């Protein structure tokens, strides 16, 4: 899990930079609209659309990657639990009984 931290930080920084560039381009577009220079507006609009498209693609890719990593992590944890239960059935029964008692006591307090 620690090996994913630098990669996550790098992708977060990239996302911040993308959003900053997109914001700058949109601000330029708004400022250019005040000048009413048609060629300038068209150029800035195209740049804004390109950056918006690029940012959207990066966000979708990052979301898909994070979903995949979370799914893989949960799958590994489930496999580890399954392995532990098969290797230590009586310990697992004892842990489940203790957890059931604690939950029962907490529910009974209400």
From TrEMBL:
GO cellular component: plasma membrane
Coiled coil: 12-58
Pfam family, one: DUF883_C
Domain annotation DUF883: ranges: 13-60, 82-110
Keywords from the named record: Cell inner membrane, Cell membrane, Coiled coil, Membrane, Transmembrane, Transmembrane helix
Transmembrane segments: 90-108
Signal peptide limits: none
Family according to the record: Belongs to the ElaB/YgaM/YqjD family.
Annotated membrane topology: Single-pass membrane protein
Record's protein name: DUF883 domain-containing protein
GO molecular function: ribosome binding
Cell location: Cell inner membrane
